[in-house]
Amino acid sequence: MKHINEMTLTIKAMSQNESFARSVVAAFCVPLNPTIEQINDIKTAVSEAVTNAIVHAYEYKGGDIVIWAGLSEKALHIKISDTGKGINNVDEALQPFYTTKPEEERSGMGFTVMQTFCDKVQVESSVGKGTTVTLYKDLQQRSERFDA
Amino acid sequence: MNISTRVENNFLVLYLDGELDEATAAGVREAMDNCLMTTNSLEVVVDLTGLTFMDSTGIGVLIGRFKKLKGTGKRLYVRNPSRSVDKIFQMAGLYNILPLVGA
């Protein structure tokens, strides 16, 4: 996929940075003229991936989260990477309501939200090395609807 | 996140203004618990008009409050979610435990 623009943002794994991270990615895709709903979808999905890195990958101990975004003529690609503890069983982690921290009132819906709000979600993880979540959001659907 | 309350027709209405995510969850949890455990109202409405963002951390916070109220005789309702918050509620089936009521 050829990208017409790309950005990379590195943030500390702190919850205070979540709002900043999702707002930056949402602002980055504005040239494709997304709908308000698409912007909200992107913000929510980014927030989920960043939260996972803070809470599960680094377990609140901090670290770096790297957010890369690429804009093609019709879609937004996002990669959110950490170098935290990694996920033992990705298939299990993707199940709705699955959480390793039920005592913290975690809903276990993070990946389900990403899958609902994006068109494609891919999770690559290596125990002890980290996790990369790749999100794909088609932003052309809306344009076609409005042009018709 | 700002939380305020008002009594309307024997209901306690709890207004959430701001964003509900990992950064604000602990404060929301504490503030809601203070309101819910001290009120004499049996029916509490959470007004979401001012809730501009919520992710799955918010789902956990709200389910947690629902569980805490079990056995107290108090019930929790929600009203006026934005389109994006409504999408989260629908996806998670939250309206089954926190029924949506009219404004």
Describe this structure as you would to a colleague.
The complex is a heterodimer of chains A (148) and B (103). Chain A is of the alpha+beta class and 148 residues long. Chain A has helices at 18-28, 36-57, 90-93, 110-117, 140-147; strands at residues 5-12, 64-71, 75-82, 120-126, 130-138. Chain B has helices at 25-38, 56-69, 83-92; strands at 2-8, 11-20, 43-47, 51-54, 75-79. In chain B, strands 1, 2, 3, 4 and 5 form a five-stranded mixed sheet that branches. At the A-B interface, helix 2 and helix 4 of A face helix 2 and helix 3 of B.
Sheet having the most strands of chain A: 5 strands, antiparallel
Rg of chain B over CA atoms, rounded to whole Å, is 12 Å
Helices and strands of chain B: which structural class? alpha/beta
Uncertain regions of chain A: pLDDT < 50 for 5+ in a row?
A: 143-148
- Tell me the overall shape of chain B: globular
Task: Kindly state the percentage of residues in helix of chain A.
Answer: 25-40%
Task: Give the termini distance of chain B in whole angstroms.
Answer: 21 Å
Class of secondary structure makeup of chain A: alpha+beta
Oligomer: heterodimer
Summarize the structure.
The complex is a heterodimer of chains A (148) and B (103). In chain A, strands 1-2-3-5-4 form a five-stranded antiparallel beta sheet, with helices on one face.
Q: Which labels suit this protein?
A:
heterodimer, A: 148 residues, alpha+beta, five-stranded antiparallel beta sheet, 5 helices, 5 strands, 27% strand, globular, B: 103 residues, five-stranded mixed beta sheet
